Amino acid sequence: MADTTLFEKICAKEIPATVVYEDDRCVAFRDISPQAPLHILIVPRQAIPRLTLAAAADASLLGHLLLTAADIARSEGVAESGFRVVVNNGPHGGEAVPHLHVHLLAGRQLLWPPG
User: Fold this and answer.
1) How crowded is residue 50: how many other Cβ atoms within 10 Å of its Cβ?
2) Residue of 39, 64, 99, 101 marked active site
3) Does this model's pTM top 0.90?
4) DSSP 3-state assignment of 114?
5) According to the model, what pLDDT value does residue 2 have?
6) How does pLDDT run across 77-111, given as a tens digit for each residue?
7) For residue 81, is it within any domain?
8) Residue range of the domain that includes 88
9) Is 101 marked active-site?
10) What are phi and psi of 86, to 5 degrees?
11) Can you give the CATH number for the domain in which 31 is found?
């Protein structure tokens, strides 16, 4: 049996987090090590280790994560000025927790290319 990830523990409320949104499919909370003035993680309750391990059956959930990011951007007042959504995949992609999640970053001019 695989170890429970940090994000699964947050979703189960075993570890505290500053939750800004939750529903039956995902939990969104403020990152404890923000990389922008606004940095929110949107985590599916279903543990998918990374994007490349998602299946066609996960398409609705993946779409829900992006639509939730847009809704949170509106509620946080950054939708008009702009924001970035990021999904890290694998070690070279910056993946730190093996549980697919979306980063919502905003609140300053984000440069391109990133990193």
Assistant:
1) 17
2) 101
3) yes
4) coil
5) 62
6) 999 999 999 999 999 999 999 999 999 999 999 99
7) yes
8) 6-106
9) yes
10) -135, 140
11) 3.30.428.10
